[in-house]
Amino acid sequence: xxxxxxxxxxxxxxxxxxxxxxxxxxxxxxxxxxxxxxxxxxxxxxxxxxxxxxxxxxxxxxxxxxxxxxxx
Length: 72
What we know:
Layout: H1 5-8, E1 14-21, E2 24-36, E3 39-44, E4 49-52, E5 58-60, H2 64-67
């Protein structure tokens, strides 16, 4: 059985969540705020909180040192 989302992410984890922006899906930075089974609450960079119940729209954040090396 796959891990539940609240077992995969802990408060303070840097993540990315996908949000629709003018009809296009965009990954946005966020931070896990707290578990609340069956999901977790995350706070997006704009300060809004979102409740996530599955892993389709959330992923671990890419470390900034790897994101900055897109030319290598």
